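Deliverable D5.2: sample structural annotation.
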Amino acid sequence: MQESSHEERERQRLLAQYSEIATLAGGLAHEIRNPLSTIGMNLELLIEDLEDPQSPRERRMFTKIRLLQQECRNLEEILNAFLQFARAGELDLEPADLNEQVGRFIEFYQPLAREHQIELSPHLDPDLPRVMLDASLMRQVWMNLTQNAQQAMPHGGLIEFQTYFRDNMVHLDLIDNGDGMDERVKSNMFQAFFSTKRNGSGLGLATVRKIVAAHNGVLKCESELGRGTRFTVSLPPVS
C-alpha cells in the first residue's frame, strides 16, 4: 500500500510538471505567434506590391520575399509541433473501441492516400477488448505514423493497419513497404528535434512516444532498409 501511495504521489508530481511545461509553452507560443503573424502580413503586402515584377531587381526581391514566407510557414509548423509535444501528457480518457477509432482515421485519410498512390489495408480483430483513449491525441499518433509511412513511399505503396489482442495488451501494427530506416535513424528517431527531413521539426515521433506512454502504453518499431517499417502501439485493456 505504501509503495502504491508513493507511485501515486510521483504520478501527481509528473502531471503537475507536465502542466507547468504546457503552460509555459502556451505563453511562449503566444509571444512568438504575434510578431510572426505581423511579419507574415507584411510579407503578403510586399508580395501584392510586387505582384508583376518587371526589372531584374524586382524579380530578385520577389524571390527573396517568397523565401521568407516559406520560412515563416516552417516556423509556424515547428511552433505547432512544439505545442503538441508539450501538451501530449494531458489526457481526457474514455473507454473506446480501438477498431472504430482506427476505421474512422482510415476513412479520413483515404483521399490523401489515393492522391499519393498509397493503399490503406485494414486487418482489424473483431474481438478486441476496449481501451482507455484520449481519442484526439491518439488520432495524432495515427496521423504522425501514417504521414511518416507516406513520406517513406514517394512512389506509392501499401500501409497495413492490424489490430489484435496478445499478452493481455491490445495492439495496433502500422506497417509500410517503404524505404525503411538504417541503424543510425532507428537509434535516434524518438529524440526530440532529431529529423532526417530538411524542414522537419523532429518532434513527430517524440510526440507519438509521449502520447502512447501517457496512455500507459508501449511503442515499438522494427525497420529494415529497403523493406519497410512496422510501428506497434500496445495499450492495456479496460479492466
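Annotation notes: The radius of gyration is 21 Å. The chain has a mean pLDDT of 81.
The annotation will be released with the project's public dataset once the embargo ends.
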